[in-house]
Structure formats: structure tokens, C-alpha cells
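User: Teach me something about this protein's shape.
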Amino acid sequence: MRSGKLLALTPADFDFEKQTITISKTFHRSKGRDIITSPKTKKSNRTIKMPSFLCEETQEYIKMFYDIKPDERLFTVTKSYLNHEMERGRNSRALRKSVSMIFVTVRFHC
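Assistant: First, the predicted structure itself:
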């Protein structure tokens, strides 16, 4: 999953009963504005399976938000910040552990 698709995820994209994530949009920032659009290709729209432990971790993560709406982004950082933290995480075992909760089944590439 590319970073833009990850950053566009909302609670509505998760089906915890079926243990799936629906990928149907992408995030980017232009001129200081957050923009959510459809992916560039039809193949980018897909549903992927999650292991049960990741479903549980994601549900706990969503519960940490106060009154989050189904269409609100779960990860409100920018691509630049995410990439910076991923780079920093290569040197920090603690950060790698916390980030791996979210990315464990997702192949991340920029």
C-alpha cells in the first residue's frame, strides 16, 4: 500500500467482521490543502485481508479518537512527516515496534 492510500484511510474503510480494508482513495497535499481523490488506476481499488490481531489493534487505535466520524482520516499526518518518521524508525527499535502494528501486513513503498 502506498503512503497516500494509507493516509486516506477512514474508519469506514475497515470491516472488522470480515477482517478487511477497502482501498478506494488516496491522499495528497497541494498548496497547503489536504486532498482526497480516487486512485489513478482501477486496480488500485481493492479489498485486502487483515490478520485478526491487526483488526484488534486497529479497533483499539480507532477507540482512542474522541467522536471520530466514519469518513474522517485516521492518520492525519502528511506524506513528508510519515516518510521522515519511517526513516527515523530505521534507527529506533521502539518506533519500529509501534509502527509495525499498523504496517505489519501492508507492503509500504513510496
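Now, about its shape. Residues 104-110 have pLDDT under 50 and may be disordered. Residues 52-63 form the longest helix (12 residues). If you'd like, I can walk through any region in more detail.
User: That's plenty for now, thanks!
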